[in-house]
């Protein structure tokens, strides 16, 4: 999956992942393949993102993800 702002591609963002997994699971297919399991795996710039689909019976009600890597801070940018 690829996530863009108006200026650049983001390596990872939680909300777009959850929303996309939820939409694909509710649709039931992705690129002609059935989305029938309880997990989805997205490949992104930051790495592989495993997403668990939350269900009540057979109805998908949400999604939960694990970050592909721990949060790290980059170089400090001076204000100005």
Task: Walk me through the structure.
This protein has one helix at 14-27, and strands spanning 3-4, 9-10, 29-30, 33-34, 39-44, 47-56, 59-65. Strand 3 and strand 4 form a beta hairpin. The chain has 1 helix and 7 strands; from the N terminus they run E-E-H-E-E-E-E-E. The strands form 3 sheets. A 3-stranded antiparallel beta sheet has the order 5-6-7, covered by helices on one side. The protein has a two-stranded antiparallel ribbon with strand order 1-2. A two-stranded antiparallel ribbon has the order 3-4. It starts with a strand and ends in a 15-residue tail after the last strand. The mean pLDDT is 86. It has 80 residues and is α+β, with helices and mostly antiparallel strands. The protein has one domain (3-65): Diaminopimelate Epimerase, Chain A, domain 1 (Roll). The chain is elongated.
Offer a concise description of the structure:
This protein is an alpha+beta fold. The chain contains 1 helix and 7 strands; from the N terminus they run E-E-H-E-E-E-E-E. The protein has one domain (3-65): Diaminopimelate Epimerase, Chain A, domain 1.
Tally of individual helices: 1
Would you tell me the structural class of the helices and strands?
A: alpha+beta
What is the CATH fold-level name? Diaminopimelate Epimerase, Chain A, domain 1
What profile does the largest beta sheet have?
Answer: 3 strands, antiparallel
Query: What's the N-to-C terminus distance?
Result: 34 Å
Catalogue the unreliable spans: none
Give the class-level CATH name. Alpha Beta
